[in-house]
Amino acid sequence: MSIATGQVQGVGQSLLRPDGTLKVTGEFAYSSDLWLDGMLWGATLRSPHPSAWIRSIDVGPALAMPGVFAVLTHQDVPGVKFYGLEHKDQPVLAIDQVRYQGEPVALVAADHPETARRAADAIVVGYELREAVTDPRQAAFDPACPQVNPHGNVVRHQPVRVGDRFTADVVVTAEYEVGMQDQAFLGPESGLAVPAEDGGVDLYVATQWLHVDQDQVAPCLGLPKEKVRLTLAGVGGAFGAREDLSMQIHASMLALRTGKPIKIVYGREESFFGHVHRHPAWMRYEHGATADGMLVYVRAEIVLDGGAYTSSSPAVVGNAASLGVGPYEVDNVWIDAYGTYTNNPPCGAMRGFGAVQACFAYESQMDRLAEACGLSPVEIRIRNAVSQGSRLATGQVVDTPAPLAGMLRELAAMPLPGPGSTDLRALPGGVAQTTHGEGVRRGIGYGVGIKNICFSEGFDDYSTARVRVELLGGEPHVLVHTAAAEVGQGLIMVKSQIARTELGIDRVTIVPADTTVGSAGSSSASRQSYVTGGAVKAACEAVRERLDKLRAGGASLAEVLAAGPVEETREYRHRPTFPMDPVTGQGDSHTQLALCVHRAVVDVDVELGLVKVVELAAVQDVGRIMNPLALEGQIHGGTAQGLGLALMEEIQVRDGKVLNPSFTDYLIPTILDMPPMRLSILENPDPHAPYGLRGAGEPPTLSSTPAIAAAVRNATGLALARVPIRPDDIALAGSALAG
Amino acid sequence: MDFLRPTTWADALAAKAERPEATPIQGGTDVMVEINLDKGRPAALLDLNPVAELRDWSSEDGWLRIGAGVSYTRLIDELGDRLPGLAQASRTVGSPQIRNRGTVAGNLGAASPAGDSHPPLLASDALVEAESVRGSRLIPIGEFYLGVKRNALEPDELIRAVRVPYADGPQYFSKIGTRNAMVIAVCSFAVALHPSRRGVGTGIGSAAPTPRRAPEAEEFLAGELDWDGRTAVPDETARRFGELVARAASPIDDVRGTRDYRVHALAVMARRTLGWAWTEYRGI
Lengths: 739, 284
Hints:
By secondary structure, chain A is of the alpha+beta class. In chain A, strand 4 (82-83) and strand 5 (90-91) form a beta hairpin.
C-alpha cells in the first residue's frame, strides 16, 4: 500500500500533546476528579509509629458515627492478606504489628470525605511500641539487630567480582551518601472502585501498570482476575511512585463490602506515606588508577535502605550493582550491593532506579581521581569511557553504539554561559535578596550516567497492542489499543505517530488503557516507547500485511475496508536478559543501555551556602528521536529531578518518622531554580530496538545530580560527599571561604 | 463550622464581638492551609473579603495606612516606592497567586515567626491598628508579637490596618530559603536607616519564637555610623553589627535549618544589608 500520508504527524515529528492544554488550563480530569452519584468516600487509618505491636483495634466508635457505612481491618480482607511487586510481604492492612510510620491499619467508608477521616481518627488502636530499626547498616551487618523481616534484614546482597588486581599507583577512597528523594508527583493517589453485578469490581485508577495491579488486587479480594477490571484514570505524574499499590485493594474492599462505588483520594500529607520513595544510600568507594588516569580497579560497598517492605528493592540492588562502576572500562571490580529492611519508610522505584545513587558516587570518584592524576574531569572520563565492544562490570558486552568519549568532547566544546547578571533572579537566593554578588563564586562540573532500559535480569518483559483499521464516516481510521499507562511521558502521541507512519493513515484514535487488552508492562525503566512502541509497530505491520494481500487485486483501501475492519493483536518482546550470577554478578542482565552526559554551571554564595544553577548542558544518545518536543521535555524534566536531588529534595527521617511530609518543607525546584538547558541529542540507532530508539526518560536524572554537585565543589573547594547539598554543608564548612 | 460573611466593617466588628472564637479570613493563604492540614478547626470563619473599606490604603502625615485587605501584589505595585523594605519582603512571599491573595494583616494575624512582613515592619516601627466594637487602638509593632503564632489582639479585635511611616532612608530585606523562590524563610532580616533621627531599625524573622528586633545592634550601629560625613562603614563595625544581630536571635534546629546555620546566616545578612543600605545612603 502507498504511504503517501501518515507522515505529517508520524515518527520524528513534534506533536503537541492532546492533554497538554487541558493540564495547563486545569481542565484535565485526573483520577482525583472521578465522581459517581451515590458513591462513598474511603479513608485510611495509618500507624503513627514506625514499629509497634497492635494489641487491640476498637472500631466501635467509628462505626457509631452517622454517615459511616463500613470500617474494615485485616480480618475483613476477603482473600490473600499480603501483596507486593516482587515478594508478597506487605499486609493489605496491618496484622498484629506495624513496621513503618504510615502503614495502613484500618479503612472507613462514609458518605462524606471528612466524615470518613473523622471516623478513621475515632478508631482506637492499642499499640505497644517497640524499638525501631532505623540504621540500615546496623540492620544489615549487626547480627544482634532485631529482624524487621522474618527472612532477615537483607533484601538482597548482590556481589560483582571481576579480576584480582586491587592495587594501583593512585588510589582515591571516599564515602558518599544520598538522601531519600520523593517522586513528588502532583496528582495524589486516588481512584474509584465500582462494585459490579457479577460480584467483581471495576477499578479506575492512576497507576503505572494496570495488569500487575490486577495480578495483586484480585487474590486479595478472593476474586478471579477477570472479575477485577482496571481502567486507567488521569495520571498526575508517576516517576515510579505508582508501581506499588496504594488505594487499589482498599477501595475495592470497601466497594465490595458496601455495594457502593468508593472513591479514595489521598491528601498531600497522606501521599507522602502512600507511596515508596527513592532508596537513600550509603556508599564506600575505592578507585585505583595508573598515574595517567587509567582505571585499574573499583571496589564499592553500596547499602540501599529499602525500609519496611520489599517493594522493588531487589531489582534496585541489581541495578546499583551491575551499573556500580558507571560507563567506564575497568578490569577489576569488587562490588557488594545490599538492600536492607528497616522500620524506615518503604523505598522502591523512582526514575533512575538504583543507578542514580551509584552514579553520584562513581562520578564523584572520577572527579577525585582526576584531581589526584592532574587531569581534567572531562579528560579522565574520556580516557576510561566505554564504547561499542566494551565489557561492563557484569561481563556484558556493549553491542550497540555507545559513543561516550565523543559525547563528552561535544559537551566540553559547547559555549559556556556569560558572567552572571545582577538581576536578583539570576543570583543565588533569588528575589529573597541574600546577595548582590557578595560571596558568589562560579563552578563548573561534569556528570556521566548509564542506565539500563527495559526490565532486566531475565524478566519476561513484553507489551501487547491491538490495532484495528476500519471505515468511520467513509474514511479509513486506526484504533490503537494497549494497556500502557500514559503517565505524562507522552506515550499516547508516540503510539499514534507509529500508527500513522506504519499504516499511512492520518486518523488515529488511542483507545483508553484498560485490562481488556493484554499487558503492556510497566511505564517504568524508560521502556514504553521501546516495548509498547514495538508492539504497536508489530501490530500495524500485521494489519498492513493483511491489507496489502486484500488489495493485491488493485482495490482501494476504502473498498477493502467496506467489507469490515481489519484487526491484529501482537505481543512484542525485547531480547531476553539473564540473571546476574549470585556470587560473581556476571551475566547479560540488561537489554539496552543508554548514556547521558551533563555539564553544570553554578553560582554559589559560599558564605550562605545558597546555589543558583546558571546553566545545564546535556548530550544524550536516544538512537532515534520519535517526537522532538516530547523528548526535550523528558530531558528537561529528568534533569530537573536530578537538580532537586543535588540541591534540595529530601524526605527527612528521624527515628523512623518523616519530618517534612508537605510541599512546604519537601522542596522541589521551581522555574527560578531550573536554568535554561543546552541540548544535543544524538541518533546512533540500536539495531535491536524499534526504529533504533533508546529509552530516554531516565538517563538525564542520573547525570545531572553529580554534575551539579561537582560544579558546587568546583566553586567552593569543598568535598561535599552527600546530596542533597545543604546550605550548612557549604556555609559552615570553614571560615576560610568567607570573602 | 460556621461561615460568617459581613459586608461592612461595622458588621464585621459586631460579628467578632459576638463570636470572638471566629477566625478571620482574608486571602486564606494561611488559614486554609491550616484547615487543609487539619490543624485545629475553627468554630467559625469570619470572611472579611466583602468588607470593601479594608481594600483601601491612604497616606497622612508621612504615614501610610494600609487596609487589612490590601494584597501583597498591590502593596508592591502601589506602595513599593515608599516602603521599599516591606515591598522587598512582600516580593518573597509564596508564588504570584499567593501574593495576589495574601495580605500583611493576614501575616500579622497568623503571627508566625516565619512571616515575611514582620522584619521590615519591626525595622520601620510600624503600628497595628486594631479595632473592636469597644473602640480602636494602635499597637506598636514591637509589642504585637507575644509568642509562636500568638499576638496582642484581644479576642473581639480585628486588624483594621497597618500603619507604616514612609521610608526616611534606605531599607533592605533579605531572606534565606533553600530554593530560589516560593519558600518559607529559614531566617530573614530587615534593616532600615532613619537618618532623620540618626537611628537604625532592625527586624529578625524565623530565628526566635517571635519576630524580634536586635536593639543592641541598632544602638551600636546608630552610634558608629558617620551620618554627616557619610564615610564608609569600617569592616570591623559591619562585622560587629552582624554579630550583635545574630546574638539577638535564639534560633532552634528544625526541619528547615539548623540553629548554627541561622546564627551564621543572620550575621551575614545583617552585614550585607547594612552594606547595601549605607552605599545607598552615601549616594554611590
